[in-house]
Amino acid sequence: MSRPATMTWRVIAADAQPCHDHRSTEPDRPEGHHDRLRHSALAGGHSHPEIADYIERITATFEPYGGRFLVHGTQHEVKEGRWPGHVVVIAFPSMTDARTWWDSPAYQEIAPLRSRHIDGDIILVPGVPENYDPAGTAKAMREAMSGG
What we know:
Layout: E1 5-10, E2 35-41, H1 49-62, E3 68-71, E4 86-92, H2 95-103, H3 105-115, E5 121-125, H4 134-145
Parallel strand pairs: 1-2
Antiparallel strand pairs: 1-4, 1-5, 2-4, 3-4
C-alpha cells in the first residue's frame, strides 16, 4: 500500500506576506512515498467568515486528487523551538497529485478565502516509504563528508 504526498503551509508572522512557492527540485517520488501538505495558521487567524467558507469547501477540491486530511483542527505540542498557531496536514497519493490539486481551478477559486486572512508559506514535502531506514541517509551523509 502506497503512502500519500504532502504539501506544507506555515504562517511565519502575523504581518508577513504570503510566499506561495510550491516548486520542487525533486522528481515525483516512486510508489510507497508519503507526501503531505502541512499548514500552520496563527491563532485567531480563523476568526473571519471567509475562513469558515474555505474550510467547508476545501475537501471537495482535494478529494478528486486522492487528498485527505491527516491533521486538522487539533492541538499540537511544541517540544523545541516555536510553532505558533495551528497545523493542517493533507496527504496525496503523489507529488503530481498534490501539484495538480494546488493548481486546479477548484482550489485556486477558494484559495483567496484563506490568503486574504492568513499569511503563510506553502511547500510540497515528499515523504518516505513505509520501510524507510534513516541509516541509509546517515551513510550517504558520511560518504559525502569523507569525499567518497
